[in-house]
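User: I'm writing a tutorial on reading structure tokens. Could you give me a worked example: one chain, its sequence, then its tokens, then a sentence or two explaining what the tokens reveal?
Assistant: Sure. Here is the example chain.
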Amino acid sequence: MSQIKIGVNMEFVRSIDKPFEWGVAKASELGYRYVEPMVHNGRELLSEAGYFHSVSMQEDPLWMKEILDKYGVKASGLSAHTPLMRPEISVDYLRQAIRFASDLGVNVVNTDEGPKPHWMDDETAFQVMKYTLTQVMQTAERYGVYIGIEPHQIYSKSTEGLLKIATLVDSPFLKINYDCGNAFLGGASDPYEMLEAVKDKVIHVHAKDIGGALLDERGKVTGTPVGVACGQGVIDWERIIRILKSAGYDGVLSVECGTVEQAEYSIRYLKGLLKEE
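And here are its predicted structure tokens:
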């Protein structure tokens, strides 16, 4: 039986310039038992100064795990977006993210195809992505970590494109991180029909609702970093949950919103739909 859980992407603290541990503590206080950390390569000023929640993969992943354990939460997946069409970046980046995730005790790394270089045609783009994923999936399979392809760019905004990327390599660990808000904004496919078509490959879900000024962007963009609170936009969450349950999905709805207040509203709303105690 499907047992859907509720988590929160760490982007909900970005607008208030807070570091990783502050965000984990706040998520726990709001009642979340899962968070989705973001990781990056190298070092950058905002994270080092404590103004940004993203964590360098040069840090010790067990240090991150100690923070999660301290506040009684787990990681649902790692946000590790990197351009698949640039293997000189993405192969090493995703391999490192897989190892980091494994040490952290999480088995999902989320990414998307990234922006397409202006000089690259469609045929070349898919050949390059297949090369990248062929390299990456060998590491994913060794570590038992799933790669979740997110609808977020020019190819994955459509059902056909998302499935094409998610089947470029024949691997049981190549899956989909379904982003409800991005699927709506892309405008290339109906978001519910898309989910029906890919539901058996979904390993992780971004619970992103779309409202306000973002509604005017539909069909003009391929996605957005964060949405509004779940239940305050146009996404039909009852329908989303019904589709996921029909596939036996027992993973996490990772709320992707922009403020603490939206995160607080979202967990109350989703718990009501899932009838969690």
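What the tokens reveal: The chain has one domain: 5-274. The mean pLDDT is 97.
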